[in-house]
Structure formats: structure tokens, C-alpha cells
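Could you please consider the sequence and fold following this short note?
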Amino acid sequence: MAIHEVTAEDMLQRCARCGSSNRLTLDTLEVGVARREDVDDGLVQLPACPACSSTEFLIRATEGEPEHPAPGSFGHLHQLLVGHVHAELTQRGRLHSMLKTKKGGAGKVVVSPLSQEARERWFPRGLRIAEPPNEEPRTPEVSSQ
């Protein structure tokens, strides 16, 4: 379930089961997975893989979790991208319906957006980790900011 690239509209994910690359639109994802009467706001369920039907989850690092033991490694960069996707979805209001109805709603969901410093240090060529062999990453769009 590795994320290889995140753009303003979508993300490129590689299925852990079959290895296929899937481009997922961010507006189809939501923060939160229901378990009985509670919703885990640290999870994002991904749609089933079109190739093998496997279902995967993104798990945001918990608040106060120690620094990643291998800065710059694939695992570290992936953790940063997962946090970024989670924060982006939360800021867009893409929350499970039970989170929206809870008192406080999105204000209660922990959000850890990727800082500009982290972007510049770890993702100088855009929010991507490695280029999957069967799909080229998109060219970063030039921002007017």
C-alpha cells in the first residue's frame, strides 16, 4: 500500500498484494473508518484494487510518535506523505459521516500538514518518493505563489 506520489487532485498508490499502480482521486477518499459506534480518525480506507480487489488502509502517525528511525528512507517519506494526505482530506472536509456529526467534528481530528521546510528538504521535486516502473509521475505544476 505504498504511496508514490501526491498531487493536488490525486495520489499514485501501489497495491501491496498485486503490485499494480492505482491513481486515486483525493475527492473520493475520506478520513475515518467506523468500528461499531466509534470512528478511527487516524485511518483512510482506500478503494479496492481494480486488479485484485484487495482493500488497504493508510495509517496516520499518532501525535507524539517518536521521529522516524531512518530519516530520508522510503518508510520515513511514506509516513510524511500519509500525514499530508490525511491533513489534506481533513482540511477539505472529507470526513466519515460519523466524524462530521460528532461534537466538534473536523476540529477534533488531529491534522499534521507537511511543513514547507519538510517539503523543501524531503520532496524538492514534488510530493513523490519513487517512480513506479509502469507509470511516470506527473510534471509538477508551476504555482503562482
